[in-house]
Target: FAD-dependent monooxygenase
Amino acid sequence: MEAVVIGGGVAGPVAAIALRRVGWDVTVYEAYTDPAGDVGSFVSLGDNGLRALEAIGCRAAVAARGTALPLLRLYSGRGSRLGEAARGRVTLMRGHLVETLRDLAREAGATVVTGRRLVDAGGGTATFADGGTAGADLIVGADGIHSRLRTVIDPDAPVARYAGLWTVGGHSAHPVEPGAFGILFGARATMVYAPTAEGTLWAAQVPAARPPEAAPGQEALAALFAGDRGPAADLVRGTTRWHPRTLMQAMPGGVPRWHRDGMVVLGDAAHPMGAGQGANLAVEDAVVLAKCLRDEPSVGAALRRYEQLRRPRTDQMLKVAGANRDAKVAGPVAARLRDVMMPFFFKRFAQRGSAWMDDYDVAWNAVSAPASAST
Ligand SMILES: Cc1cc2nc3c(=O)[nH]c(=O)nc-3n(C[C@H](O)[C@H](O)[C@H](O)COP(=O)(O)OP(=O)(O)OC[C@H]3O[C@@H](n4cnc5c(N)ncnc54)[C@H](O)[C@@H]3O)c2cc1C
Model:
């Protein structure tokens, strides 16, 4: 059996590796020519994403590119600790994650082709912007938040929109507490920071009804955190390398249709999350999809089973992602309430409520029950 995977970001290479593990021939087509490299921002993989990578033999290689940060600590701009949780996180540059996954996909026997952009698909054929085509038993859309395959599957699919939050970040020489991933909810913006082997990685998340044309200068950015206690302003001032400004996008209602006629979407193409758990879910999706193709009698049954297994979890995560965004775009009164309430909620949530997020297991070795015809 042969698969064409569109997109060489996170979900695409993982899908390629997982599909190779179940005996498929795979070619990944990525729109951009340049390799991922040390560009973009950073991502954190949680227990769930790491466990899914472990199932297909990729955890060690990915973990080796990042820094393990066993603690998550939340602070308010007034200096109080809002919460703390133990988490098996690995933080790394998104570019390094993509680079490592593409290498692992090639090692697994997949072909990765760059510089080819999907423009259309149907009847088992993918068509690219250069006029070329590729035929396959399955076309997998791992083509991200503005997925082309999503609209091929469903021309009425909603589009992701700016979610009221923009972000910019960098590498900073300013040191922070080792071993802890920090989130500081300031009065005017949120600062996320991670001490890694290559310096402190930081990202400021700034609420704005309309994003600025360009990121403000270093001093203006530092000034956003001037009234806050903690390392935020110093992190900005200590920046040695900048990461590009990104507009957070979301599609709160989700994507109604994930598959049709041997075409399927996964990762951000299926459930645009913004930041948070998006990369983790992309990894999980890809592994579960391959498992369903391994266990089900036909591609159609496998795609139905994949959606049946994944939809409840991604719907729940979309709600959490929305609530996280709301906490970051809170006005002064809501922010005060957040700072008072969060220690209570976080304690409960971290101890009991988040198990569904972190403890999720793709159960790679268990055979999935057959999909019912009605799903
Ligand atoms: C600032 C920021 C911080 C984040 N932090 C985290 C985090 O800490 N933890 C976490 O889990 N998630 C995080 N995320 C989310 C995470 O990055 C995404 O959810 C994840 O990258 C989704 O993976 P994907 O493979 O579905 O899409 P992508 O990684 O976007 O990959 C899609 C790929 O498809 C290619 N492509 C697009 N269109 C075409 C086409 N027509 N033809 C061929 N190729 C195409 C693109 O070039 C790209 O390489 C963050 C996101 C942002 C913006």
